[in-house]
Design a protein that fits this description.
4-stranded parallel beta sheet; 7 helices
Amino acid sequence: MAVSGDVGDVATVDTLTDACTGKDVGLLVVNAARSQGGAVLETSEDDLVAQVRVNCEAALRLVRRLVPAMVERGRGGVVLTSSLSSVAAAPWVATYAATKSFLVRFGESLAEELRPTGVDVTVLMPGPVDTPGFRSSRPRGGPAPIPPRVAASTALDALGRRTVVVPGGARVAAQRVLLQRLLPARVANHIMATALRRMYR
C-alpha cells in the first residue's frame, strides 16, 4: 500500500502510521526533506517553518509512533537522512542545515537509548545527491552529486554497524572530519560559507 502526502502535515503522518497498523514494520527510513534556498531574511516565515515541520517534526512523530513495536519485537532498524551541510555554518540553506543537524543529534541519542533493545539506528550524512530536489535548487558548481543508490546502499550497509555514515567514499568522509573536528569552527564556517556562496549567490 502506498500513501502519498506531505509529511509536514500531521494528517499525512496519521494516515501513514494508520496504514502500518497490524503490520510488522522492520525498517523506518526517514528521507523526506524540504529545503528552501535563500537568505533567512529573504525567505518567508511559512517556508522556514515548513522546513522544520518536514525535516524535524515528521521524523519525531514517525519514530515515536513506529519504533515502539520494533522494540517490543526486539528487532528493527531506523535510518535518518541528515546532510553534510549540518557540520558547519551554512548560509543560504541555514534552516535546512539546522534541521539536518537536529537529525544527527537525535539519531545519535536515539541509537544509545535503543542499543539494548535490538533496534539499530543509523544517520546517513550525504553531500549532494542527484535527486529532483537537488537539481531544482539550481546550484552553480560545487561537488558532483552522488547517485541515490549509492546513498541508499551506504545507509543499509551501515545499519547495525555504524551510527553515523557518510556516503561517497573516503574523500567525502575526510571532508566531514576536517570541517567538523580538525579545523577551528571559524575556519570551517568560512570554508562552508564560501562554497555555498559560489553555489547559490
